[in-house]
């Protein structure tokens, strides 16, 4: 997972992966979308290939790259675990209960205060 996380940490590599989502591309087609040199794009593709995020195939004289998103599953699982609440459900339920109790008590106090005023009004009238 560390190699995949390292690979997707770079914005150029993320863009390459995004481009390959739509289909296969040659290194020339990929390099044409960036302001960096073709050898630099090749180095990014090598990093992506070494961690298994892209596969390459030699077709004639052209090397065709395609996305293999399978290694991202482990990263996705890790992110899901990190994002999952760790005991927060009970804490949020307790907070919700406390908020409702406080609202109910305030409402009862207001009602009682209005009732007392109402009685005073009747006494003075």
Task: Please describe what this structure looks like.
It is a single chain. The chain is mostly helical. It folds into 2 domains: 1-72, Winged helix-like DNA-binding domain superfamily/Winged helix DNA-binding domain (Arc Repressor Mutant, subunit A); 86-124. The chain has 6 helices and 3 strands; from the N terminus they run ααβααββαα. A 3-stranded antiparallel β-sheet has the order 1-3-2. A hairpin with a 2-residue loop joins strand 2 and strand 3 (62-67). Helix 2 packs across helix 4. The termini are far apart. The model is unreliable at 121-125 (pLDDT under 50). It holds the Pfam family HTH_5. Residues 101-112 have a biased composition (Basic residues). Residues 100-125 are annotated as: Disordered. This is Winged helix-turn-helix transcriptional regulator. Residues 1-87 form the HTH arsR-type domain.
What's the gist of this structure?
By secondary structure, this protein is mainly alpha-helical.
Provide keyphrases for this structure:
2 domains, Winged helix-turn-helix transcriptional regulator, 125 residues, Arc Repressor Mutant, subunit A, DNA-binding, mainly alpha, three-stranded antiparallel β-sheet, 11% strand
């Amino acid at each position: 997972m560390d190699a995949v996380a390292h690979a997707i940490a770079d914005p150029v590599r993320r863009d390459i992966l995004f481009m390959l989502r739509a289909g296969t591309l040659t290194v020339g087609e990929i390099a044409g979308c960036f302001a960096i040199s073709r050898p630099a794009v090749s180095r990014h593709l090598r990093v992506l290939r070494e961690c298994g995020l892209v596969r390459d195939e030699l077709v004639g004289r052209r090397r065709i790259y395609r996305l293999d998103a399978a290694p991202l599953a482990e990263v996705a699982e890790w992110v899901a675990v990190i994002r999952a609440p760790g005991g927060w459900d009970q804490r949020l339920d307790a907070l919700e209960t406390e908020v409702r109790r406080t609202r109910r008590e305030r409402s009862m106090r207001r009602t009682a205060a209005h009732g007392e005023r109402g009685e005073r009004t009747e006494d003075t009238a």
